[in-house]
Amino acid sequence: MNSEKLLPASVLILGCGDLGQRLAERLPEDRYRVVGVRRSPPADTPSLTYRQSDLSKPEALHQLLAEPADIIVITMTPDERSDAGYRRAYVDTCMQLVSALKAQQQSPTLLLLVSSTGVYGQQDGSWVDETSPTEPESFNGQRLLEAEAIIREGGFPHCIVRFSGIYGPGRTRLIEQVRQGRAVLSAAFTNRIHAYDCAGVLAHLIDKACRGDEWESLYLATDSTPAPMAEVVNWLAMQLKVDRAVFAPDRIDSERGNKRCANQRLLNSGYRLLYPGYQQGYSALLGLPDAAADAH
Length: 296
Description:
Layout: E1 9-14, H1 18-26, E2 32-38, E3 49-52, H2 58-64, E4 71-74, H3 83-103, E5 110-116, E6 126-128, H4 139-152, E7 158-163, E8 165-167, H5 173-179, E9 189-190, E10 192-194, H6 195-211, E11 218-221, E12 227-228, H7 229-240, E13 259-261, H8 264-268, H9 278-286
Parallel strand pairs: 1-2, 1-4, 2-3, 4-5, 5-7, 6-13, 7-11, 8-10
Antiparallel strand pairs: 9-12
Helix pairs in contact: 1-6, 3-4, 5-7, 7-9
């Protein structure tokens, strides 16, 4: 595909939830035609047409791909937090997608898989990047790695994006935990990225592919300020005027790990973070003046 293509590029978003909706809003309607796939889709929007489909059924993708897509985004949500749920959502979907594309002899410009920094198992607070070992102990990290391998070895142009913890509108669990005095003062590092930046990163990579620019096959997508959870909780408590004495003592959550995620490869690609750190992002959520003024 190149910039001289007259028709809008077609984007198919599999598992089109909150992140898919935000991505569609970031893709200009004159350049992209976006279809989102969900089991129970809401009404269409100006930027997004929905199709109802159950991707757990092998024939579903063959039907969806009857009209070829230039860009396919895989952003799934497990129907249950279990090994089987993650296998169905990620492993089975990726296997069926690669199989259907090959059976129908299609050649999309880009397969874009939304993965997670949960694939890293580091517990010592060390820095991790795209070259770091991935040895997760949790089932979710293991299944995500399996899905990544299917996309990586499928033979199609692809990009895997490992997002750190996503927060933003509708994703305010830590704020509510602090308000209710239930947050934990953990010494473990926490890595975050605002939902607006998640959509921005995906739109950035789609634009690169559609312009014919080079891209890396793997990006770690996170903001620029990993911090101990205790620091984030204390900062939020000050903004919310919550007595910090109510919080539980230090604890490291073995499932979440303890690592610092590096985003230099993403920044080198030309992406500019709307919210480089948790203070800017949470300030926006709380309506404080430190928020980025131009975020959408």
